[in-house]
Amino acid sequence: MTADANTSNPPQTWQQRRLRLSFVTSRVAGLIGLGFGVYNTQGTDPVPFVNADSSRSIAVILILLTLLDGMFVTVLGYRQLVAYDESLSPIERAAAAVQRNLIGRISVAVTVGLLLMGLSVVGTYLFDLIFAGVALTRFSVILLAGAYSAVLAFWIAYWVVTLKSQQIFGLAVAVIVVGMAVAAVTSTNTRWWQNSLSFLGHDDNAAMFFNIGLILGGMLLLAVAVDVINEFRVLKDKGRFPDQNYRLLQIMLCTICFCVSGIGMFPSSVSLASDILHQIAANGMVALIVILMFTVTAVVPVLSIDFKATSRIFGALCVLFVLLALIRVFNFVTLEITLIGACLTWMFLFKREVKNYIRIQPALAPPPIPAPLPPDSTPLIGQSEQVSLVGHTSNPVEASPVRSDTPSAP
After folding, report:
1. How many domains does the chain have?
2. Which structural domain range is residue 272 located in?
3. Same domain? 214 vs 135
4. Measured between alpha carbons, how far is residue 188 from residues 18, 118, 182, 184 in Å?
5. DSSP letter string over 302-363?
6. Same domain for 209 and 87?
7. Domain check: are 73 and 171 in the same one?
């Protein structure tokens, strides 16, 4: 009977689990979309696509559903199936159990929600420009809201349940770059580039884009840093990575990410305290990254020789850029943009190098099975604990520091 049951119900692959969870999420989101459409179209028939005098419009419904789906689906589905991903290495699977951290969950959810909402605002604006005056019946709008919410939730869930560190890093870079670019375009002072990038952080129009981009970007980078730390933690717990190096790497990576967010949290020229914290965050971020470029051999000695040489070249280039800026070869904004580009590129290469190293690590060996004892012998007190801690010998009795006159089994 057991064999028949196993034959009729084979275990699901991670792709099947992914599709099933996405369809379940889609159905729930579709029902919520229908309810939202019913509520937001009360007393309005037909419903205009855009209504300047009221929020009861198709555009408002789509934008709000985009924000809600983007945030809540991401929060609920964040990396739910990452441990089942067949493309992961054994070490990555072991680290996946602790990779659904709260920082990553919140930062990715807020970022996805805001980015999708921004895209929906742009999309509805363009649609209204092309098809001005469009209106639909209330029943059609309700069905549209349900279908839109269901389809959007399906693809968000399908993407987020097995979200990988590389994707989060790409999202972080996109948020930082887009935030700075939009801030530069919308700044009220067209000569901001003669001052510094930090000027955008207290500009009336640009401040919101600049600061939010850096805050969210720093949180996303912190989620990536936590992933790297967790992978090295698995190696450390198995004796494959030095504990002291693990602690140092943990402090440096987390501090760098806090500094990125701190640049946006504490704009310059707002108050004396904010200006001081802003300078500490900005200078501290660059300084720590450059130090890590030069000391990566000591901090993470397991990486390849080629990457260590590349890392030193990046560090030397950063120092060279600073010296060229001091002798007025280019202005301060050019220096900032160059350093940001160099630091983000090095972080990408560092993450890729760590991934390549983790991928080639062998599977974690299970605890050794104790050798059977003769019938007339008694197991030593605490022997099982000694066996579980020793993973490098096939004879656990010899590995134990406790000695006994009883001979061990052959």
Report:
1. 2
2. 164-362
3. no
4. 46, 21, 12, 9
5. TS-HHHHHHHHHHHHHHHHHHHHHHTTSS-HHHHHHHHHHHHHHHHHHHHHHHHHHHHTSPP
6. no
7. no
139 shares a domain with 228 = no
163's CB contacts (< 8 A; 6+ apart) are 78, 79, 82, 108
Run of H or E residues at 47? strand 47-48
Distance CA 186, CA 204 (A): 9
| Nearest-angstrom CA–CA distance, 87 and 157 | 18
d(CA 152, CA 407): 67
Please give the structure tokens belonging to residue 231: 């992978």
**Element spanning 240, H or E:** none
Q: Is residue 378 part of a domain?
A: no
Residue at 29: amino acid letter: A
Q: How far is residue 191 CA from its own chain's centroid?
A: 34
- 395 assigned to some structural domain: no
Q: 143: Cβ–Cβ under 8 A, 6 or more apart, which residues? A: 34, 37
Same domain, 208 and 146: no
Considering the domain architecture, whether residues 270 and 342 belong to the same structural domain is answered as: yes
**Torsions phi, psi for 382 (to 5 deg):** 80, 5
Per-residue pLDDT 10s for the chain (410 aa) are 444 444 455 566 767 888 888 899 999 999 999 998 888 888 777 888 887 777 788 888 999 999 999 999 988 888 777 767 666 776 776 666 665 567 778 888 888 888 888 889 989 889 888 888 888 888 898 999 999 999 999 999 998 887 888 888 988 999 999 888 888 888 888 888 877 888 888 888 888 888 889 998 998 898 888 888 888 887 887 777 888 888 998 899 999 999 999 998 888 877 888 889 988 998 899 899 999 999 988 888 888 888 889 999 999 999 999 898 888 887 888 888 899 989 999 999 998 888 888 877 766 554 444 455 455 444 444 444 443 333 444 444 334 444 444 444 43
Domain C-terminal end among 110, 134, 163: 163
- Domain for residue 76, yes or no? yes
Give the span between the Cα atoms of 237 and 241, in whole angstroms. 8
